[in-house]
């Protein structure tokens, strides 16, 4: 995005809104625009949820644009639309946030950050939702707009400001109330500019009135009949413009608004300022249907003055009607949309050349013939719709796909004598390109979402092979990654692997992927012959793939290419500028995700190495006791704070042992340093002191060190062995309780009161002795076990107790594996926190 966005990047003000604003607002899209310094355009300065291709088209637009976000900036009023249809009706230039998945919308002005007696608007914000905006969405957006205003000022971002003013009752110059008429008539696919030209200059009167019977549009003929200029109509009530019309006329028009049924071929006699004496009009009045639950949002009138045929010469009347038909015929024939008229038997009465050419036949071939005779493959789809229109007069829109092209057809009844449908009119427009762009936007957005959820390199490659292939409209998408030595490109598994001999390519290979990597430029092969002319050695391998076209794109993460992204197609491709731009965008997104995943994996490996250094390399052999432990790293790049240790008590001749398990708050280097300090301090103190005293000395060490701002939960136990079994003396600093599975499979929860170590100036700790008989098993663990989140919430202590009670084997090595498997089976996805588990089982009586 030009201009303002670059300014934001230079100033470092990329935090105009919270990074997690989409989650906070439960929205799909959030957009912030600011007035330019002249105050007549809006610039997109921040957005979340829009794909770059879509955001680029909205980088700058006029303040007078007929979209909701611009209206909030003009009027200073928040707006809310509950559905995409409502937005189309109220703002004919479609949605202010152009994302296919967005339905509901709220907008709000961004006020000048310095409150004063005369508040001014500096921009506006909008939020889009998949469905109806949730309760309180407008208030949430108003708060975000205030936050954004302060951040804009803090960033020193230039902006314009203006006093808000209400929109005029008349339509803005860039939009038209005709959009309502067009939507209400069901001709959604018709070029609006063409219809405005046609309706405004028709030789019959056309007017649009709102629910209060105020004029929102009149064409030239209607203004002439009424004897006032078009400007003297807009925003005024029917009675202000035409005070001498019969009072019954208001009642009849309100009946159209109340019932939603049109008033067809209706005659009215009255006086107007245009000419003295009584005059007669004949017109039809149609409801304009919107999203309002109270009924039509207005009505459209099509009328003309009729003379008394007894006093007007037949020749003159025929001439006037012939002139009108000539104008209409000319408009229909030259319209850039398909137009046809069929009788109630679905025989063509009229068709313009545009639609005839699309049908692949001449105009003459259509006239008098039925639709099924001309287009048998299309007739089953549209004939029932046309019959419904002919019988009921309803308006129907139908979208069809033929020969790879998409068409939007609108059918509506043409009224005849007595209000019956005399014919069916058909408007057709091609929407192939529009639908393709909408589909591409959806797929690019889905690809972006898939990459955002991919953590590892393998997950990025899988996202490319699935969502990336769909976004590129390719049959296969594959990723080749540069190895750590920078000598080979290795294809990552995506489920759509390349031929076996090309699974690994040396960077200097005579292969198009390797050549494109060395050149650091994309390579496009629109057809098989083009590739084989340069690389005839690939003839046999490519024949087996069945692909006819390829695009090979370097994936750049942090400046340099980290690999190659290849798209393969079964059919030949043009690879025009639009397609190349799309593929470059996809490669850029994949490259950024790949760089992020590689960084994560490097940091994760480093964290694991550091974590292993904080744990004992092996557990000691204790006579008469079986011992096992397991450590599971959470799904995070930084080192965690979980630890455990087992060591002999000094001078006990192997009869007393210290068992420790703990969890330092937080993650990262600081947590790791406290973990190491805690473990080594306890090695010294617990080797001579009882558990509670050892924890008190650790607390003093942490609290008195001003450079340490971490605390921990910890259990320290002294295992005393004797001939009949053992005794475990436990002290706990705020740690989850130990569990003891007895030989009879019952489970005791051993709770020992105690405070967090290192958190408060004073620490209160107690001890509890737990007798252990042969066959009893003790389980110590960190809170990652209890806090594993699954379909029914946290795993919790009750599930852990039941898991321990029903364990088929209490051998410590198999028991810790059983607990680990149970937690992993319960939780959604990888563990969010580290897990440490220690199990010890008292066996036969200890030998001296």
Summarize the structure.
The protein has 848 residues and is an alpha+beta fold. Helix content is 36%, strand content 27%.
- Structural class, by secondary structure, is alpha+beta
What composes the largest sheet?
6 strands, antiparallel
Query: What percentage of residues falls in helices of 4 or more residues?
Result: 25-40%
Percent strand equals: 25-35%
General shape: elongated
Second-tier CATH architecture of the largest domain: 4-Layer Sandwich
What is the average of the pLDDT values? 80
What's the helix count?
27
Q: What order do the strands of the largest sheet run in, or round the barrel if closed? A: 3-2-1-6-5-4
CATH topology of the largest domain: Phosphatase 2c, domain 1
Q: What value does the Rg take, in angstroms?
A: 38 Å
Name the CATH superfamily assignment of the largest domain.
Answer: PPM-type phosphatase domain
> In the residues, how many domains can be counted?
5
State the low-pLDDT regions, or none: 1-13, 92-100, 170-195, 309-325, 497-502
Give an account of the 3D structure:
This protein has 848 residues and is of the alpha+beta class. It has five domains: 4-155, GAF domain (Beta-Lactamase, 2-Layer Sandwich), CATH 3.30.450.40; 178-316, PAS domain (Beta-Lactamase), CATH 3.30.450; 339-430, PAS domain (Beta-Lactamase); 435-607, GAF domain (Beta-Lactamase, 2-Layer Sandwich), CATH 3.30.450.40; 614-842, Phosphatase 2c, domain 1, CATH 3.60.40.10. Strands 3-2-1-6-5-4 form a six-stranded antiparallel sheet, with helices on both faces. A six-stranded antiparallel sheet has the order 19-18-17-22-21-20. Strands 8-7-11-10-9 form a five-stranded antiparallel sheet. Helix 18 runs antiparallel to helix 22 (577-613) and helix 23 (669-685) crosses helix 24 (691-704). The longest helix has 37 residues, at 577-613. The protein is elongated, with a radius of gyration of 38 Å. The model is unreliable at 1-13, 92-100, 170-195, 309-325 and 497-502 (pLDDT under 50). It holds the Pfam family PAS_4. This is Serine phosphatase RsbU, regulator of sigma subunit. Keywords: Hydrolase. GO terms for molecular function: phosphatase activity. Residues 191-260 form the PAS domain.
